[in-house]
Write a structure and sequence with these properties.
The complex is a heterodimer of chains A (351) and B (312). Chain A has 351 residues and is α/β, with parallel strands linked by helices. Chain A contains 12 helices and 12 strands. Chain B is built from 11 helices and 12 strands. Classes of the chains: A alpha/beta (351), B alpha/beta (312). At the A-B interface, helix 7, helix 8, helix 9 and helix 10 of A face helix 6, helix 7 and helix 10 of B.
Chain lengths: 351, 312
């Protein structure tokens, strides 16, 4: 598969009055053409910062690239000037933000907001841009698009506004679409519509999507691959089936166990104890060690490297080291592993 | 069943009454909340679930209908003193952690506001200790007491809101989407916390949310709202196993679950109110299909639902 974006050893810090916040501490991943990569993790894990650094949307006076590169089309995005970046932003890489209530300009009719990227990035006339914009609205399922062009954001519902934001982001047929919690502010029924819409559109225009969310249900629905982030690092990455049915990192175990299942009985919900690490002074070893019941001495001292589970599945935990003791994952995770050929709990028919 | 803590009778909350843009946010709903239980209220935004909560606690004066708390009418005429007593028993955790905390007050004073109003602390040292304890209960620490709300993440702010509600030791808490803004791992902590507090202090909750899997987990009974009306009310388990109203079925089919295999095969049902095909003036109201399971339906639908559920 063709790699469209490569993030290599990315390190980024924010300089604040309290000191240097190491928000991203060595992130590596590739994005392939036409796939959906979901990035999950709690707030402060660095998932939004990672994508905003790809878009170069972080405040220049406090955010600083410390190391690494972001390769896109043979160029390193971390080194581009603002002018060069403006040509990429909205055209080749577009972004959908979390809150459709605030990501549209309330004082501008949506027609103008839709034609803005077209006029900026493509050499077309206003009349043509208008035509394209109407087609886009139709594409995202907006009824009576001609009439709607003249209306202002407050005249639309939350779901409709998110459709408009998606339409704007698709205006220039971007190669990469970054969706930062695009459905978190929406109802489940509207969420389902938006997710279906995004999947349909992806098939039509063959764009790659980076989908940030903390809702594992949504991940299971949209993702081809999943990267789990914690404390400014990716701790596990693999295909959606590998992450959900054969997770290896204790943090992934925790995440999967803390979701109540609809058919589960009334047992106590597993909660990951404690709070995320303070990235002003990141822990020396495995950032999750302090919250993990599986932590070993080495987790406190050395940062685990990525261990290979399969060609597509890597996890950064010392538990995968050949010398590590064999531990039992939580019961809910074992239940999941029973479904996965290749995991040590697999209960499939032996042929 | 247990003692009724709250009775909501024919509650109506209409806005812009008499104008062209009249909104019937809550349109004649009735239900009871029993002491010690958690009643979940779900529905899409704009269905009136938040308005219901706000009317119960009298943030709005109801257009009509009554709310009885321990047999006393909340919406009746009340002196300031009576209201204050009542306010201590009923607290609210709000939806938007950004708007519900005064940006110009320190955490210490935000959490202690209820303590001050009701005179619950004997002296400054005790007040401070109470705030510290509350912060710890909700997973923050005492160093946070001297900060301002803007220094906190959305999740932390919501914890402050919970600490503030707990400060006056209430009997009944209305939690309006208290966990929507929190991370998955933190959601579990907060939900466990709410459950523990419930067992410890015998709290009663009205839990308003759109995250249906969490609602099922925390609630004993669940009410489903659609356009200002309650369309189904049933024990949590029963509602998920055997949803009867087509809107409930559509809502349940829209929930994504953390299971890729299930997601690949999930079929979403959509709800069209036209399926009911109600005749003009047909008597549509809540009817009990199986014990404790109420569905809003017409006489005709009632018969067929009863027949279907008898077969199961």
């Amino acid at each position: 598969m063709e790699k469209i974006l490569q993030v290599k050893d990315l390190e980024l810090s924010f300089n604040t009055f309290a000191g240097e916040v190491k928000a991203i501490r060595g992130v590596n991943f590739d994005l392939y053409k036409g796939e959906t990569l979901a990035i999950v993790g709690e707030s402060g894990s660095g998932k939004s910062v990672t994508t905003k650094s790809i878009m170069r949307l972080l405040p220049e006076n406090s955010a600083e690239f410390k190391n690494g590169e972001i390769l896109f089309g043979g160029r390193d995005l971390t080194k581009l000037s603002d002018k060069e970046m403006q040509k990429i932003r909205g055209k080749e890489i577009a972004m959908i933000f979390q809150d459709p209530m605030t990501s549209l300009n309330p004082t501008m009719p949506i027609g103008r907001q839709l034609t803005e990227p077209l006029l900026k990035h493509q050499k077309i006339s206003k009349a043509e841009a208008k035509k394209v914009a109407i087609d886009l609205l139709r594409l995202v399922g907006m009824p009576k698009p001609e009439l709607r062009m003249k209306q202002y954001p407050h005249q639309f519902s939350g779901g409709q506004r998110q459709r408009i934001v998606i339409a704007i982001s698709l205006a220039c047929n971007p190669q990469i679409l970054i969706a930062d919690e695009p459905t978190t502010a929406l109802d489940v029924t509207i969420q389902a519509q938006i997710l279906e819409l995004m999947k349909d559109l992806q098939k039509k225009i063959d764009t790659s999507i980076i989908f940030i969310t903390h809702d594992l249900g949504v991940v299971a629905n949209v993702a081809d691959r999943v990267a789990v982030m914690y404390g400014g690092k990716i701790v596990e990455i693999g295909t959606v089936d590998e992450i959900f049915y054969n997770p290896q990192h204790p943090y992934t175990w925790g995440l999967l166990s803390s979701m109540p299942s609809l058919d589960a009985a009334d047992e106590k919900l597993y909660a990951i104890p404690g709070t995320p690490p303070d990235l002003l002074a990141p822990p020396k070893g495995d950032a999750f060690a302090l919250r993990s019941e599986y932590a070993m001495q080495i987790d406190m001292e050395q940062n685990p490297p990525f261990f290979k589970v399969s060609d597509s599945h890597y996890a950064a935990t010392w538990l995968l080291h050949p010398d590590a003791p064999r531990v039992e994952p939580p019961a809910t995770v074992i239940e999941r592993m029973k479904k996965f050929p290749g995991s040590r709990y697999y209960e499939g028919s032996r042929v | 069943m247990a003692e009724k803590l709250l009775e909501i009778k024919n509650l109506k909350q209409h806005f812009n009454v008499g104008k062209a843009n009249e909104v019937r946010a809550v349109d004649d709903i009735s239900f009871d909340i029993y002491r010690g239980e958690t009643l979940g209220l779900v529905g899409e935004s704009g269905c009136g679930k938040s308005t219901t909560g706000r009317s119960i606690i009298r943030l709005y004066d109801a257009t009509s209908g009554d709310v009885f708390f321990e047999g006393e009418n909340v919406h009746g005429k009340k002196s300031k003193k009576d209201l204050k007593k009542f306010n201590r028993k009923m607290q609210m955790i709000f939806q938007d952690p950004y708007a519900s905390l005064n940006p110009r007050m320190k955490v210490m004073d935000i959490v202690a506001e209820g303590i001050d109003i009701h005179g619950l602390a004997k002296n400054a040292a005790e007040r401070k200790q109470m705030v510290f304890d509350l912060l710890e209960t909700v997973g923050l620490n005492k160093e946070h007491a001297n900060r301002y709300p803007h220094e906190f993440s959305g999740g932390q702010r919501q914890r402050l809101g919970i600490a503030r509600a707990l400060a006056v030791d209430p009997d009944f808490i209305i939690a309006d989407e208290p966990i929507s803004a929190l991370d998955v791992s933190i959601q579990a902590q907060v939900v466990n916390l709410l459950k523990e507090l419930q067992e410890e202090k015998g709290l009663t909750y009205l839990f308003i949310a759109h995250d249906l899997s969490m609602v099922k987990y925390i609630s004993d009974r669940i009410g489903v709202m659609y356009f200002g009306k309650l369309v189904e009310l049933a024990p949590a388990e029963d509602l998920y196993k055997n949803p009867m109203h087509p809107y409930t079925q559509s809502l349940l089919s829209a929930i994504p679950l953390p299971d890729p295999d299930y997601e690949r095969n999930r079929v979403r049902k959509s709800y069209d109110p036209a399926v009911h095909n109600y005749a003009e003036g047909e008597d549509v109201r809540m009817r009990e299909i199986t014990p404790g399971h109420f569905v809003q339906c017409s006489e005709r639908e009632f018969e067929s639902l009863k027949a279907t559920s008898a077969r199961i």
